[in-house]
Amino acid sequence: MDIMFISGLDIEKMELSNQEILDAVEASLLAQGNGKVVIEPREHLIPNPEFNGHFNILRGYIEPINMAGVKVVGDYVDNYKLGLPSELALLNLYDPRTGIPLAIIDATEITSMRTGALTALGAKYLARKGSKILGHLGSRGTAWWNIVLLDKIFDFEEIRVNSKRPESMNDFVQRVSNYLGKQVKAVSSSEECLAGADIMVEATRLIEPQVLLKTEWVTPGTFVVPYGTISAVEFSLTDVMDKMVVDDWGQCKGGKFGSLRRHVDSGKLSGETLYGELGEIVAGKKAGREDDQEKILFWHRGLSLNDIALGNLIFEKAKKLGFGTKIRYR
To answer: Keywords for this entry (predicted)?
Structure first.
């Protein structure tokens, strides 16, 4: 019995298209909205608080593609000091009928891809169709896919980026500008980045809470995506929203991390104030944006389902293209 190991280099050689990434994640949201999945609550492992990081363990099953999976991802804020990504991950894929392990995949880029795809798909259903200005806080791994996949949908006229470390921000902005073939601006403050933007994305790497996204900047028609691990928003942010949407309420209402953890704990974001899950909207069970004046917030924690969907896409392409390494299991 063999297992396929698919490395990061294998994935890079596949040259997945932006549309393939979006389609795979959207299909997983559709399956979720139609109740054809199993999502287990994520678990956290904190080996030692002094290490300034933790592990997330995500588990799930998607019926339409007949695939189960478990992802373990380390989230270590100081990894940049070692020249490493802040998030390093492995995804195991399994046959859900027999428990046979099928693949072990470097899920570091998958984690960034699926996060960006979720941001972009949230905007597809919840942002104004004519959105032309993107304000993005943060230049970490997921920022690339946030901006690239959002721009595929909206073809922005203006993209602004602000980040704590100017050296990494400037390099990031240059790389994205070169890829998109349009100017991406590095700006000096969160206000310059977000105020007046149609779509605001907060993807920071804070060590302790700090207000970087102010409620007063949210005007009619704004779409806001706050998903940093530590809160960078004002406590009043949820008060001005016409709709609040999440990827999975079970994931969002529990745990100790997340941008809106305080809002959940206080009851500002609850089962009563929540509008719905993105999967319900993708499946047509609830409306998305209904007019251009709505202020809409989308908070995503990141789902095993999205990882598994992308992992399955990569697994199938690896078999088709002859990539990956077979490892004898037993």
So the answer is: Oxidoreductase
